[in-house]
Amino acid sequence: NRPVKRPYPASHEQLWRDDHVYDLIVELGYNDDPPVAGRGSAIFMHLAREDWSGTEGCVALAYQDLLDVLRLAQPGSEIEIRT
User: Fold this and answer.
1) N vs C: which end of the chain shows fewer Cβ within 10 Å?
2) Are 28 and 44 in contact (CB under 8 A)?
3) Does residue 44 sit within a domain?
4) Which residues are CB-contacts of 11 (< 8 A; sequence separation ≥ 6)?
5) Tens digit of each residue's pLDDT (9 = 90 or more) over 36-73
6) 64 within some domain
7) d(CA 65, CA 60)
């Protein structure tokens, strides 16, 4: 992941949004050591939409829950995602 200038011809994420789901955002380590072309570039942990609709491969939490995760996280912390 890296900042890009828009317009950008390749796939990119719009991080400034009116729905506020990216007001708090954490990039989870994914496909970064080393990156493999075609496997995606990031998984984000961010705020859930008001209607709790699904994400496109990210993890969404309520505002206070995400604050709690950030407060408890330490260097080397791991997040296990399961259904």
Assistant:
1) C
2) yes
3) yes
4) none
5) 988 887 889 999 999 999 998 899 999 999 999 999 99
6) yes
7) 10
